[in-house]
């Protein structure tokens, strides 16, 4: 039996799909499960013990190729992808719900194609089975509902995240330590550098080492914080899989709404998440041990990438974060 999972992006969405992978592996332990994803997902999922094949949908390379007039190259890549996906799939599940993912499901030509009835961007044109779900459910639960519709045994009380095998962490960090993820791609999700500095100072006073994680492009921003408080700046020094042991061994992780926040939550370490323009009941850190700071202003959630006032983020105070840190410390 062969099963194809379609979840192209982003990192947080891919992590939210891992419980569905876990359910499929339990229900069909001898099945060959493949996953098609974009570049970031391919890097993260490579070598996952539950997956037979990981196929790359190279969408991010196409804009440059279009500018260079390499349309024929893109067509060849689509044809190659179609040939790779001709594997007589018994079940194809589109967890993405967009036209591009639905098109991939069509290319695969499996026996059963299932996806969301209320997909965006004409994302349900080629499904043979359509499932309507409440969009206010958390993403993890929405994805599991697809499997429940197919009469696959799903336990909503026993939800786990099978992470890929992680390499040893390459740096020594003195415990106890707290990891901070201060960077998000949306300007509207960002907190304020002055508040990060003051929060870090307060954490030092509580006896914690403060470690910052991020991408290479985040390094300068984080260095501005570390110059004031002496924290450890790991931005650009780790890959995604190396973050798994970093987060797992931390006392907790404090983060804005970003993909690595979900990675931290999946390791089982408590997360304090700062939410502004997005809806934590849909895409917050999944699990009762995590805490979300969300002000529930009339304008929230707005889902805007940019905001002039950022009132929802301004109202998040250092004292309430420290109060939650002390709760976690007491629980330990």
From TrEMBL:
The protein's name: Lipopolysaccharide heptosyltransferase 1
Q: A Gene Ontology molecular-function term?
A: ADP-heptose-lipopolysaccharide heptosyltransferase activity
Q: Where in the cell is it found?
A: Cell inner membrane
Membrane topology (UniProt): Peripheral membrane protein
Q: So what EC number does this one have? A: 2.4.99.23
Its pathway is: Bacterial outer membrane biogenesis; LPS core biosynthesis
Which keywords does the record carry?
Answer: Cell inner membrane, Cell membrane, Glycosyltransferase, Lipopolysaccharide biosynthesis, Membrane, Transferase
One of the GO biological process terms: lipopolysaccharide core region biosynthetic process
Query: InterPro entries recorded for this chain?
Result: Glyco_trans_9, LipoPS_heptosylTferase-I, LPS_LOS_Heptosyltrfase
Q: Which Pfam families does the protein's record reference?
A: Glyco_transf_9
- Among its keywords, does the record have Transferase? yes
Question: A cellular component term (GO) from this record?
Answer: cytosol
- Keyword Glycosyltransferase listed? The answer is yes
Q: Which reaction does it catalyse?
A: an alpha-Kdo-(2->4)-alpha-Kdo-(2->6)-lipid A + ADP-L-glycero-beta-D-manno-heptose = an L-alpha-D-Hep-(1->5)-[alpha-Kdo-(2->4)]-alpha-Kdo-(2->6)-lipid A + ADP + H(+)
Question: In which broad location class does this protein mainly occur, judging by the first location in its UniProt entry?
Answer: membrane
In terms of domain of life, where is this protein from? Bacteria
What Gene3D superfamilies is this protein classified in? Glycogen Phosphorylase B
């Amino acid at each position: 039996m062969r099963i194809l999972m379609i979840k192209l992006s982003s990192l947080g969405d891919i992590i939210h799909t891992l419980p569905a992978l876990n359910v499929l592996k339990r229900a069909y332990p001898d099945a060959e499960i493949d996953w098609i994803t974009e570049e970031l997902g391919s890097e993260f999922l490579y070598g996952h013990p539950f997956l037979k094949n990981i196929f790359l949908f190279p969408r991010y390379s196409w804009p440059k190729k279009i500018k260079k007039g390499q349309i024929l190259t893109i067509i060849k890549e689509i044809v190659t992808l179609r040939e790779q996906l001709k594997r007589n799939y018994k079940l194809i599940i589109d967890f993405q719900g967009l036209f591009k993912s639905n098109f991939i499901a069509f290319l695969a030509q499996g026996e059963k194609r299932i996806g969301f009835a209320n997909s965006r961007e004409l994302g349900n044109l080629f499904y043979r089975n359509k499932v309507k779900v409440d969009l206010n459910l958390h993403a993890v639960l929405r994805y599991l509902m697809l499997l429940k519709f197919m009469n696959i045994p799903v336990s909503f009380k026993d939800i786990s995240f099978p992470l890929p095998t992680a390499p040893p962490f390459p740096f020594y960090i003195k415990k106890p330590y707290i990891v901070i993820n201060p960077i998000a791609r949306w300007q509207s999700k960002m907190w304020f550098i002055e508040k990060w500095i003051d929060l870090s100072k307060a954490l030092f006073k509580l006896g914690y080492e403060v470690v910052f994680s991020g991408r290479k492009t985040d390094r300068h921003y984080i260095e501005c914080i570390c110059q004031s408080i002496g924290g450890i700046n790991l931005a650009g020094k780790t890959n995604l899989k190396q973050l798994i042991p970093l987060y797992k061994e931390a006392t907790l992780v404090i983060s804005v709404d970003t993909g690595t926040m979900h990675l931290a939550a999946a390791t089982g370490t408590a997360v304090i998440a700062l939410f502004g323009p997005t809806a934590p009941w849909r895409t917050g850190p999944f699990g009762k041990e995590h805490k979300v700071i969300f002000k529930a202003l009339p304008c929230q959630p707005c889902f805007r990438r940019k905001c002039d006032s950022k009132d929802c983020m301004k109202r998040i105070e250092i004292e309430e974060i420290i109060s939650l840190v002390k709760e976690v410390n007491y629980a330990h």
